[in-house]
Design brief:
The termini are far apart. Helix 12 (about 430-450) runs antiparallel to helix 13, helix 12 packs antiparallel against helix 14 (about 490-505) and helix 13 packs parallel to helix 14. This protein has 15 helices and 26 strands. Residues about 1-20, about 140-145 and about 585-590 have low confidence and may be disordered. Strands 2-1-7-6-5-3-4 form a seven-stranded antiparallel beta sheet. With about 600 residues, it is of the alpha+beta class.
């Protein structure tokens, strides 16, 4: 065939650089023409069929070749800037070259490209003309499947890949790399790799290591995208060499930007958490799964009186540990050790931490195991509540209660003495004894309240003591009912009522007969908000309704109703007195 070897003017200066469109289009071989900058200005029908596409022309024309993609004979990608036309126009290569053309549908065709440079009449370069000789698919010349697979792996792999030459310039880059940085192949390939790194010292170190054929694995770096965004990456790279000569690098770039940002968020969260723990007034520390202390705040150091070494101190940072009774506690048996060894929280335990100066601090620990997303034990956190001020307040409160109890007893003793002096020489000795016993019953009730720090009294203890004091019924008294903490407001009125019933039973009722007995029983109703109590005398002498209401009767019938809002019923039966009471108990503890 014959291809024109001269051109009258550059394409930008002439409407056409082929004199006969019909002849050019009817050439029996694929052919095309570029101007001196590589822009395609003409191509025939056979070239379009070979490429499988029609190239762009005009100001934004395709450059150097109209193929969808080009490859070297070994199957590796060839950029259009490395094509035979580009090499011929830049004076780098002259002569025939073998290439592999890839069509948009993925089909590949091997061909030999022949290039002729075009010159103007005055001798200046104005372009180049190329024609293709399609190669037959002879077995020895076909691309191997492995080469094709390798090319597909390089181009379509999800991991960013690129080659860098000995001079630091990018020789190849796959689509994942281009997508990562937002560049087209023509904008990226051929430029120095340092242009895309945000830290010059990092890329200089990378290139220096590779120049000594060092292998890099997950080297952290920052790349700058076309839009100016910074991407955090890990680069793994080594050198491909032939006969010891540096040919190019093989670089895998892993984008870890999202993970890096997540790590920053985690670090910020941990920083805020540490600041929060440091600000807490309570002592807090953490350990790993083996018990090694990994963190403690200032409050913990103050409570212990020492600053243990992180990672080498175990279980607890205190100098010594003791139980409240003074028994020493080995550190590997402390509450934190138990929580980790048994993988459970420990609660309601008190201990003493001894400082190096010998002072002891009472505290309550709250060790709690920590688990990862798979519920595996990874450590524990412990909060130590200093009980020093609480213990001191409790001691002051106890002193105050004891003093109050002492003063009340003195007052009752004074009243008893005045009553004794008042009744001395009087004929009604029985009235005197009854009054004194009421005072003593009141004092005993006061003792029970004092032992409970005036929070209330257990109904069983209250009734049992009053029966023993007032009538000494022994086995002839049956006391049945759940343990209930009576509210403080109900203790004294109920105690005086029981005392009057005991006194009456021992003087006039069932206990005057050896066969007589008394039964006191109670139960909680309405979810523990009401108390129902029943007093029954059995086997005693016949009892008649009194003609005159005395102190005891008035107390049972009207006093409890007024003071405790109770429903009371007093009945005089032939076998003895029957007393029934139903009172609100909203502040009492439920039955156990």
């Amino acid at each position: 065939m014959s291809i024109p070897t001269t051109i009258a003017a550059k394409s930008a200066q002439s409407p056409s650089i082929a004199s006969d469109d019909i002849i050019f289009d009817q050439l029996p071989t694929p052919a095309y023409v570029c101007d001196d900058e590589g822009r395609i200005v003409r191509c025939n029908r056979q070239a379009i069929e070979l490429w499988g596409r029609r190239p762009r022309m005009g100001p934004d024309a395709d450059r150097f070749c109209g193929s969808h993609r080009l490859h070297w004979p070994n199957g590796l990608r060839m950029s259009h800037a490395e094509s035979p036309m580009a090499a011929a126009l830049t004076g780098r290569v002259a002569g025939d070259q073998e290439v592999v053309i890839e069509r948009p549908n993925g089909e590949r065709v091997a061909a030999v490209v022949r290039i002729n440079l075009l010159h103007a009449a005055e001798g200046g370069l104005v372009g180049g003309a190329a024609c293709f000789e399609v190669m037959e698919k002879r077995p020895a010349e076909q691309l191997s499947d492995s080469q094709s697979d390798l090319e597909d792996f390089f181009e379509n792999g999800v991991v960013a890949l690129h080659w860098v030459g000995p001079d630091g310039r990018i020789l190849r880059a796959n689509q994942a790399e281009l997508d990562l940085l937002g560049y087209e192949s023509e904008e990226y390939v051929g430029r120095h790799i340092a242009e895309f790194h945000a830290d010059r010292a990092v890329i200089d170190d990378l290139l220096a290591r590779l120049s000594y054929h060092q292998k890099l694995e997950r080297y952290p770096a920052r790349l700058r995208t076309k839009s100016g965004e910074i991407r955090h990456v890990l680069i793994s790279s080594n050198v491909y060499s032939q006969d010891g000569e540096f040919v190019h690098t093989r670089c895998f770039t892993l984008d870890v930007t999202e993970r890096h940002l997540a790590q920053l968020d985690l670090q910020e969260s941990e920083r805020r958490s540490r600041e929060l723990l440091e600000a807490l007034p309570a002592a807090v520390y953490t350990t790993d799964r083996n018990g090694a202390i990994t963190f403690y705040n200032e409050a913990a150091a103050e409570l212990w009186g020492v600053r243990p070494e992180l990672g080498t101190s175990y279980w607890c940072g205190s100098w010594r540990l003791f139980w409240p009774d003074g028994t020493p506690v080995p550190h590997d048996e402390c509450p934190m050790a138990i929580a980790l060894k048994e993988n459970r929280s420990v609660r309601n335990v008190e201990a003493l931490a001894e400082r190096p100066d010998g002072t002891r601090v009472p505290f309550m620990p709250y060790p709690t195991p920590l688990h990862d997303a798979q519920h595996r034990l990874v450590g524990a956190v412990n909060m130590l509540i200093d009980l020093t001020h609480l213990k001191q307040a409790h001691r002051r409160q106890q002193l105050l209660i004891n003093e109050l109890n002492h003063r009340v007893k003195n007052t009752l003793a004074t009243i008893q003495s005045i009553a004794h002096q008042t009744f001395t020489g009087k004929a009604d000795e029985e009235l005197k004894q009854r009054f004194e016993k009421r005072l003593i019953a009141l004092a005993k009730t006061h003792d029970i309240l004092t032992r409970g720090n005036w929070r209330g009294a257990d109904i069983r203890e209250l009734i049992s003591q009053l029966i023993e004091f007032a009538c000494d019924a022994g086995e002839r008294a049956t006391v049945e009912g759940p343990s209930v903490l009576l509210p403080q407001r109900a203790v004294v009125p109920l105690a005086m009522a029981i005392h009057e019933l005991c006194t009456n039973a021992s003087k006039y009722g069932a206990l005057t007969d050896p066969a007589g007995r008394i039964v006191i029983e109670w139960q909680c109703l309405a979810g523990g908000t009401r108390l129902k109590l029943r007093w029954a005398e059995l086997g005693g002498p016949p009892v008649q309704t009194p003609t005159r209401r005395g102190f005891g009767t008035r107390l049972l019938e009207r006093g409890l109703t007024h003071e405790l809002r109770a429903d009371c019923k007093l009945t005089f039966q032939p076998s003895g007195v029957l007393f029934e009471m139903d009172m609100p108990l909203s502040t009492a503890t439920p039955p156990t």
